[in-house]
Amino acid sequence: MADKLPEYKRRNRATSVADALSGALDPVLRKRGFAGRDILTQWRNIAPRPFDETTQPHKLSWPKIANSAEGATLYIRCAPGTALFAQHEAANIAKAVNLYFGYVLVDQVRLSAEPFIANSGPKTDKAYEPSPESLAKVGKLTETIEDDSLRQSLTTLGLALARRAETKRKT
Fold it and tell me: Which pLDDT score is estimated for 60?
């Protein structure tokens, strides 16, 4: 008799990108010693200030003894100029990681030789200078409004909409 093929599992539901990519990411993370994605995705909540913005976890190195009660060594990447401070505060970083997970996950924190990935921090917007045409157009539309605060608010709104229209035209 012919063996029955396994029934295809339908995926007719919405899934998050993290769930869809977990099959591809998990083997890569295991090579770096991470059992899960929490330490990477929640680093800004785990690390004490200012290390939440100036460092990134690189890998976990576990001790060679299989049943050891010791924690792992966490290697972190540091932004230029913060490595010495991060090395000095390594015990506090390890304490914060262990506090987040509720058990001794990290015994030591060391600096990684890998460079800090630039542009992974918060993005800053460039200052927007409205064009003279936008200023004139919005000014003409709001000049008849008597209330100063309302006129200022509508001018700000008009300039924001003009900026959005300009960026859409550029792309």
Answer: 86
